[in-house]
Amino acid sequence: MGIESYEFSGEGMQRVFENEKWTVGIKNWKPANDIAGIDMLERHNKTDELFVLTSGSCTLVFAEESAQGLQFHKVAMEQNKVYNIPATLWHNTITEKDTKMILIEDSSTSMDNSDLYKLNADEISSLRALVQ
After folding, report:
1. Distance CA 19, CA 126 (A)
2. Predicted confidence pLDDT, tens digits, the chain (132 residues)
3. Domain span at 100
4. Does residue 53 form part of some domain?
5. Which of 18, 31, 44, 89 qualifies as a cystine partner to 23, CB 3.0-4.6 A?
């Protein structure tokens, strides 16, 4: 037995390690996470998700549900800090082309216990104005 290492340099996210308890992924820029391409939010209904920015730039966006609709917020990530996305919080990442992050989550996290939310044109405009 020896030490294993993992890497991923393609677009988007890939799980690079997984066991029965947790998953580690590497998340790189992809068009859907660019400010020009953002059109979705997601939430994981049973599990938290952790992000660590290792290079580049990322803004975590999240939304709280209210009677007036979604209320958007942002957090500009700092390198080498751990950011926790609590279960059930609508969120996404807005990245630039040189961005690389580490993602850590429970291995049970999947689309079976997660939701996607398609943003409408007004919501996309609000989110872009918040981030820019």
Report:
1. 39
2. 899 999 999 999 999 999 999 999 999 999 999 999 999 999 999 999 999 999 999 999 999 988 988 999 999 999 999 999 999 999 999 999 999 999 999 999 999 999 999 999 999 999 999 998
3. 13-131
4. yes
5. 18
